[in-house]
């Protein structure tokens, strides 16, 4: 890339292997092109996977991440690689969901962020995990996350 605003981005536009652990993943950020405007960014990861820390069996979730950026936006390729790094990571649903939200907050300092982790059943019980950092800016349009309660989710 020739634009100096993107000089610190190492993953975008490059062949980049997915990190094997979330702790090794680099979540990159880009200057918000409209920092004077309150708006919502949504990422949906309908095929998120991690491992049960006890059994080692795979767990599956549909993640929805909504945030109102301040000075920075999340660079999407780095987010994709960060999420992929959970494929061999053993942690409970709650820990994975909260770790992802906290990492985005730590790296990008949004005005507000919420994450919905809609986990597929384990032992016959779906576990959904929700967290929020801050309050949504006044007047921000925040649509429903659009993931129905589990009834054979599809």
TrEMBL record:
Keywords: Cytoplasm, NADP, Oxidoreductase, Queuosine biosynthesis. Substrate binds at residues 74-76, 93-94. One of its GO terms (biological process) is tRNA queuosine(34) biosynthetic process. GO terms for cellular component: cytoplasm. Coiled coil: none annotated. InterPro entries: GTP-CH-I_C/QueF, NADPH_dep_7-cyano-7-deazaG_red, QueF, QueF_type1. Pathway: tRNA modification; tRNA-queuosine biosynthesis. Residues 1-29 are annotated as: Disordered. One of its GO terms (molecular function) is preQ1 synthase activity. SUPFAM superfamilies: Tetrahydrobiopterin biosynthesis enzymes-like. Belongs to the GTP cyclohydrolase I family. QueF type 1 subfamily. This is NADPH-dependent 7-cyano-7-deazaguanine reductase. It comes from Marinicauda pacifica. The gene is queF.
